[in-house]
Structure formats: structure tokens, C-alpha cells
């Protein structure tokens, strides 16, 4: 039986894009964006975990496999495909990925449906920076950046880039200054994340909640799941989506 059998399948069309979505749960809304190589069993398990904590979770299927364990070679194929996909920016610096507009629309649609102070956005790996891009829209009040990996950290400039245009970078800084924090989680020695946490600390100051785990792992919430990372993410979502005085 498919691991997505209990999830409601749908689609969201906006901003010239149309992607499948999977939804489950009740309560405040959270958009969970999967990592490479796709919507894997580990990503679905994390979504199920959030559902168990009382959230309405929507997972868009953006690329790669879904609901089944990817074939051994699939991971090696996904990144080259993303490098030539218009909606992702795997190398360019100072640019917001075009897919961000579609994700903001998805967040607004979810919030319109479930209400509350706003929605959460959890990005992982190649989608890690998308949570930042989504918080440009005030409907996103709980952005989580998990092991952000784009642009690929080839050289000092790319390693420190957070996948945002100058205008979006300024908007993120304003929102943070106005009281919307950003949670970041990564393994301390994960080279793929480059120096992006340093960039975010410099940009956002104390509004960037920096969680760095000991070790050389990568996927903090899935393949290399760390209970402390999951606990911090759940706690952050609880505080931001259920707590009083949300900014």
C-alpha cells in the first residue's frame, strides 16, 4: 500500500506552474517541501509526524520519486535535472528561485482554508532556502530552513548565498526585525550548507535561531533524522502557529 494512501491527493496551479500536492491532518497549516531525490518515505514519515502533533500538512511533489524508496541511481540523476530546470537556481547567486512564487501561492491557499495566525514552511536541502523566500509573504509566520544546499557551495560566494534576490533579502530582514524569527537546523560539519548560517546570523541577528548538531550528517529531519532537530522544529511551529502575539 502506498505510504500516501491516507493523504488527500490534489494539485495547485498558480504563477504558471502546476504541481501535485498531498494533504493530511487538522490544525494550523504547514507546507513541507521535500529534498532530493524526491518525496521519499522519510519525508512522508516526517509529514506524518507533524500531522500527529496536530498540524494540517501539505507536501507538494516538486521533482523525483514519490511514496516509494528511490532507485539506487535516482539520487545521482535528480541534481543534474534540477540544474537545467527553470524553477530552481542551483548555481546563480543573488537570485530567488522562480518556484518561490508558486510556493507563496500554495501557502496563501492553505491559510485561506485553515485560518489561524499564518502557516509554517519547512524547506530541506535544495528547497531549504525556499522557506526564506516564502516568508516574504506575511502569511508565512514560521519559516524553517533545514540544511539549505543551494546554490551549490562551489566557491566562497555561492557557499554564503541564501538563494534570495536583494529585494527579497531586504523583505526577509524587515520581517525578522518586526518579530518573525527564522529557525535553521543543520549538522555542524555538513559542507553542503556552506556558510549560509553565518550569512543569516549576520543578516537577522537574534531573529535567526541557529541549531547546529554535532556530526557530519545532512538530512536532519529525514535520512539522518536527529531527535533534537525534530523537537526544535515541532516546538517552533507550535509556538509560532498556536502561541499568542504572532508577528
Automatic annotation (TrEMBL):
GO terms for molecular function: hydrolase activity. The keyword ATP-binding does not apply. Residues 26-147 form the Dienelactone hydrolase domain. Pfam families: DLH. Keywords: Hydrolase. The keyword Hydrolase applies. This is Dienelactone hydrolase. It comes from Humibacillus xanthopallidus.
